[in-house]
Write a structure and sequence with these properties.
Elements lengths: L6 E3 L6 H8 L6 E5 L3 H13 L3 E5 L2 H11 L3 E5 L1 E2 L2 E2 H10 L6 E5 L4 H9 L4 E4 L4 H12 L8 E4 L2 E4 L4 E4 L2 E4 L2 H12 L5 E2 H9 L9 H13 L8 E4 L3 E4 L3
Parallel strand pairs: 1-3, 2-3, 2-4, 4-7, 7-8
Antiparallel strand pairs: 5-6, 9-10, 10-11, 11-12, 13-15, 14-15
Helix pairs in contact: 3-4, 7-8, 7-9
Length: 250
Amino acid sequence: MSKAFPLVLKQLYLSPIDLMAALTLDRNPCVLLVETDEVLAGYLSTDLKSCGYEPVVAANVATGEHLARELQPALIVIDRVLGPESGLSLCSHLRTTGNRVPVLLLIGRDTVDDRVACLEAGADDYFLKPYRTDEFLQLVRLYLQPDTHSSEQLRFGDLILDLATRRAERNGRTIDLTMKEFELLKYLMEHPREVLTREQILENVWGYDFLGESNVIEVYIRYLRLKVEDEGEKRLIQTVRGVGYVMREA
C-alpha cells in the first residue's frame, strides 16, 4: 500500500490558505477523519481517496469540532480514543449543537456497554478495530452511496419515503434524514399500524437484540417527530406506553 499524504489539520484556527484548501474539497464527498494515530489516519485516507472520497484529517478534538462546522462533510469518522481526549464527547457535542452529519466511531471493544455508549453519544454506527479495508469501505459506501437504481417509495398518509434518495416528503416539503433516521422510519413504514416493540426495533434497525436501559430509540423517535411532524401536521408515529411504537394516524 502506498504511503498516504492526507490533508492533516492540527490547529483550531486555520490560516486563510489552509481553510481555502479544505473548503474546496467539494468535488467529491468529503470525509472528516478525527484521528490522532498518524499511521491509521494514513491507511484510512489512502483507502478513501482510492474510492473517490476526499479525506481531511483532524489530529485533535478542537480541530475536528471546528472542521465539522466549517467543512460540512458528508461523513465524519471519529476514533473513540483520541489521546487524552474522548471521541464520544466530541460526537455528543456535535449532536447537541445540531450537527446531523452521519458519524462512525472507531472502537476497540464490542461489548453491550460500548454499543450503548456509541449510540447514546449520537453515533450512527461503529467500526470495530483492528482496521480492515474492505469492511470499512463497505460501511462508508452504505452511508454515502444510496441505491440510485431503486425507484421504490413507501407511503403512509401524506408521508412519502424515497428509498433511492433516502429522503422523505410531506405536504410538498423535502425532509433530509440521517442514515439511522432513514432506517428507523423505513422500518416503521414497512409495518403500518403494527405495534413494534423496543426489542424488535433495536434488532432490526440497530442489529442488536439487547441494549439494557438505553434510551437510544426514544432519542431517534424524537428526532423523526421533529422532522416529519411539522407544526399543525397530524402525528404519525405513536407511542404505545410500555411496549414500543406504531405508525398510524391519531
